[in-house]
Each structure stands twice: as structure tokens, then as C-alpha cells.
Amino acid sequence: MTKLLSANLLRLKKSVLFWGTLALSFGFGVLMCAIRFREHLAYHFEVSLNSVFFGFAMVVGVVMAAFIPLFFGTEYSDGAIRNKVAVGHSRLSIYFAGLITGFAASLLCMAGYMLSCLAVGAPLLGWFTKPASLLLWAIAGSVVMLAAFCAIFTFVAMNCSRKATSVVICLLGVFVLLIVTVVIDGRLNAPEFIQGYEMSFNGQVVDTVPEPNPRYLRGTERAVYQFLYDLLPTGQSLQYTMLNFTEPGKLMGLSGLVCAVFTGAGAALFRRKDLK
Q1: pTM
Q2: Residue percentage of the chain with pLDDT more than 70
Q3: Which of 30, 50, 105, 238 has the highest Cβ tally under 10 A?
């Protein structure tokens, strides 16, 4: 597999698509810092570097959903995968070399975004204000979350011969997961009670007795929603972006589970796939 990895990394080094994605990630970091600094000037918000540093976690799914199918879809259209099998490389080696290459590309894009935040955001927004332990957990968790995203997209890209189809499946899938995540987040953050208001006789608005919110999640239903929120890579990406998580070990374990399931299933399907 070493030769396959070397060939993939060399191809990555020469890829216009990769360098464009890396530049886009770096530019997105600069843009996020500029937007937050403009908000600070206009509305006098308190800002810091941690308010933008993990912003890439929220969009990495979309970025990799486009990059991985496009990068590896070319190997199908060029017949490179058939040639690799013909010269004696095992299908498992081909699959895992692709997975590792996609993960390496995603890590470099994440590093590019964070580097731009340090270079541009630190002078404009100031340094971090959150505890170092929280930031380190968020970085470690984001790395494992990236592996989960890459496992999902590699599963699709390596088992779909048509590049356009795999891109559509990955992009559509990640947008669906983002919508589901927003819905789950809204339900989990719904208040337990709803504060009502009424007009008094003298024309003043006064508070009424708070009423129970029928949309507030309780018991088993809340536990199920929380589990899905923690399991979905998009749910984790929102938590890391907002630095709003309490069990980083659990999140990393669930990402590892997603990575293992999709990697195992993808490799098994690829071994039986007709490459002709």
C-alpha cells in the first residue's frame, strides 16, 4: 500500500482541485475573521479568536463532499483503478490508500483554515478566551470528525463509478444531514416553559404565568435526540464550531464508530464491485 499512497499523494500534490480547495479553505478563514471584525466595529460585540477558529468544522462536510468524489472519480473515468488491480494491487489496499489520502487532504484544508485564523484573526480579534483544555479537545474531536466525514464520502466515491453521481449523492446527503442537525438542535434547545404576555388595564404589558412548552423534549425522547445529535458528523460539527460540548470522549467514540462502519462496509462492497 506504500506505493499506492505515494502515488496518491503525488497526484494530490499536482492536483489543481486540491490546491484550489486548500486556497478556498484559507480564504474562508480570512473571510470569517473579516466578518467578525466588521461586526465588532459596527455593533461593538466582544470578539475573540475562538469565535471563528472552529468555523471550518461547520462547512468541512460540504467541502469534502465535493472534493473526495471529484478527486477519486477521475480514477474511474481514466481507468486508473482497473490498472492498479491489473498490476497486482489488492482492492483493500486501493480502498484504504484512497481513504487515507482523502483524510490527509481534509486535514491540510483544516490546517489552512486555522492558519489563516491565526495569521489574520489574532491581530484583529485578539487571542483565545476559552480554556486551553476545551480548545485541545475541540481540535482532537474535529480531527476524528473529519475521519468520519471522509469514511462516508470514500464509501460513496469508491463504490460509484460515475463521478457526477457520486458528487450529487455526497452533496445532497450532507445537506440533508445539515437540515436534520438544525432541526434536532432546535428541539434540544427549546425552552421548557413559554413565557406569555398580556395587556393590563392601565396599558402596560405584564408577564403571565409561564406555560409548559409542548415541544420541549423529555425522558427517552430527549435521550434519542441527543444521541442522534452526537452521532451525526454534522451535529458534532455544530458543537465544535460553537464550542458547546460536554462529553468530548463520547463524541470522538461515536465518530470512530461511524468511521469504522462506513469503512468496513465500503471496503466489503469495493471488493465485490465490477470494475469493467
Answers
A1: 0.92
A2: 94
A3: 105
